[in-house]
C-alpha cells in the first residue's frame, strides 16, 4: 500500500474485512454523540524489516480503563483486540512505520440503560505513518487562550473521540497565528499539555513535566521517557506544576506522544527557548528513544512486541 492511501482492509467486530464492510448507521451513538474510546499505537519497522508494536499492553490497559469510566462494556477482550491488531497488520503487509488505532464504540444505548438495548462494537485501523520533519527541525508553539477540559466536565484521562473536538479551536488559532502547535493551560492557569502530546521542560539540568493531576492524558510516551531519563540517563525528573511564564525560562522544551514521538520546541509565544535550537538533553533522549523503538538499541524496558 502506498502512503496516505485508504487501507484495503480493516478489522471490524472480530474479522479482517474489506474496508467498505465496516459501516455503522448515522443514527448510532457513535455518529450522533461521538461515543467511542480509542487508542493510537505505533508499530515500528525494525532494522531487519520486521515490525514491533510499542507498549501494546499499556495502550490496551488505558483503553479498558477509559471504557470503565464511561461504563462502556467492550464486546472484545484485551487478548482478542491484541490478536486483531496483529492479524490486521499481518494481512495488510505494510512497509515502514505504522499507526494503529483500535476503537471501541457504542452503537445503541445512550446511557447504557436497559442492558438488552445496548449494542457496542469495535474496529481497528492501521496505516503507514511517515516521520514528521519536526522531529529534527523542532516546532514553534503558542500558549492558547483556550483551556484543557477538566476532570469535572470531560475527564482528560479519556481518549474519547468526542473529546478531541475540544482541540479544534486551539489548533485553528495556533495555525492562524503562524505556530505549529498549541500549549493548553488547565482551569487553574497552569501548563497542561498540547493538543496531542505532553510537555517536558529542562531547567538547570533537571527535567520537569506537569503531573497527571494537571489535567493531562496519562501518556504512555511520557511515562517511557521518564523511565529512560531516570534509569538510563540518570537525570532527575520532577513531576510538578509549571506556570506559563516559567516556560520562557526553560533551557529546552520537548513534546512526547505516540505521533509526536519526541518533538523539540524551539520557541513559545515567539520567545526562543534556550538559544532557539534543539537542546542536548532533547537530542540524546530522542536518539535513544527512537533507537529502541526501531530496534537499533537494546529494548531494556521491554517496550516492544515483535510481530
Ligand atoms: N495528550 C493528548 C491529548 C493526546 O492525544 C496524546 C496522544 N495519545 C498524548 C497526550 C500522548 O499520549 P501517548 O504518549 O500515550 O500517545
Automatic annotation (TrEMBL):
Record's catalysed reaction(s): L-isoleucine + 2-oxoglutarate = (S)-3-methyl-2-oxopentanoate + L-glutamate; L-leucine + 2-oxoglutarate = 4-methyl-2-oxopentanoate + L-glutamate; L-valine + 2-oxoglutarate = 3-methyl-2-oxobutanoate + L-glutamate
Keyword Transferase part of the UniProt annotation: yes
Gene Ontology molecular function terms on file: branched-chain-amino-acid transaminase activity
Record Gene3D superfamilies: 3.30.470.10, D-amino Acid Aminotransferase, subunit A, domain 2
GO biological process, one term: amino acid biosynthetic process
Transmembrane segments: none
Protein's pathway: Amino-acid biosynthesis; L-leucine biosynthesis; L-leucine from 3-methyl-2-oxobutanoate: step 4/4; Amino-acid biosynthesis; L-isoleucine biosynthesis; L-isoleucine from 2-oxobutanoate: step 4/4; Amino-acid biosynthesis; L-valine biosynthesis; L-valine from pyruvate: step 4/4
Required cofactor names: pyridoxal 5'-phosphate
Family annotation (CDD domains): PLPDE_IV
Keywords: Amino-acid biosynthesis, Aminotransferase, Branched-chain amino acid biosynthesis, Pyridoxal phosphate, Transferase
EC number: 2.6.1.42
Enzyme type, top EC level: transferase
Alphabetized Pfam families for the sequence: Aminotran_4
Annotated NCBIfam families: ilvE_I, PRK06606.1
Family: Belongs to the class-IV pyridoxal-phosphate-dependent aminotransferase family.
Protein purpose: Acts on leucine, isoleucine and valine.
Protein name (Swiss-Prot/TrEMBL): Branched-chain-amino-acid aminotransferase
Amino acid at each position: 500500500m502506498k502512503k496516505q492511501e485508504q487501507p484495503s482492509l480493516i478489522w471490524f467486530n472480530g474479522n479482517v474485512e474489506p474496508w467498505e464492510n465496516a459501516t455503522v448507521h448515522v443514527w448510532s451513538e457513535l455518529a450522533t454523540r461521538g461515543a467511542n474510546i480509542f487508542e493510537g499505537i505505533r508499530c515500528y519497522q525494525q532494522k531487519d524489516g520486521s515490525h514491533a508494536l510499542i507498549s501494546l499492553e499499556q495502550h490496551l490497559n488505558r483503553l479498558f480503563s477509559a471504557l470503565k469510566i464511561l461504563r462502556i462494556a467492550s464486546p472484545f477482550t484485551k487478548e482478542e483486540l491484541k490478536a486483531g491488531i496483529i492479524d490486521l497488520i499481518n494481512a495488510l503487509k505494510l512497509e515502514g512505520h505504522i499507526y494503529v488505532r483500535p476503537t471501541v464504540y457504542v452503537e445503541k444505548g445512550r446511557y447504557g440503560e436497559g442492558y438488552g438495548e445496548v449494542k457496542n462494537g469495535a474496529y481497528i485501523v492501521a496505516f503507514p505513518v511517515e516521520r514528521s520533519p519536526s522531529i529534527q527541525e523542532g516546532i514553534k508553539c503558542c500558549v492558547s487562550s483556550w483551556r484543557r477540559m477538566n476532570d469535572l466536565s470531560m475527564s482528560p484521562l479519556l481518549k474519547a473521540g468526542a473529546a478531541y473536538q475540544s482541540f479544534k479551536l486551539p489548533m485553528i488559532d495556533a495555525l492562524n497565528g503562524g505556530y505549529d502547535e498549541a500549549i493548553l493551560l488547565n482551569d487553574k492557569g497552569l501548563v497542561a499539555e498540547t493538543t496531542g502530546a505532553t510537555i517536558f521542560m529542562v531547567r538547570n539540568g533537571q527535567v520537569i513535566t506537569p503531573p497527571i493531576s494537571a489535567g493531562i492524558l496519562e501518556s504512555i510516551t511520557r511515562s517511557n521517557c521518564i523511565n529512560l531519563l531516570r534509569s538510563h540517563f540518570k537525570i532527575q525528573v520532577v513531576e510538578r506544576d509549571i506556570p506559563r511564564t516559567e516556560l520562557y525560562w526553560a533551557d529546552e522544551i520537548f513534546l512526547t506522544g505516540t505521533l509526536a514521538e519526541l518533538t523539540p520546541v524551539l520557541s513559545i509565544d515567539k520567545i526562543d527557548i534556550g538559544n532557539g535550537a534543539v537542546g542536548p538533553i532533547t537530542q540524546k533522549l530522542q536518539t535513544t528513544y527512537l533507537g529502541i523503538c526501531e530496534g537499533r538499541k537494546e529494548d531494556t524496558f521491554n517496550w516492544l512486541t515483535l510481530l
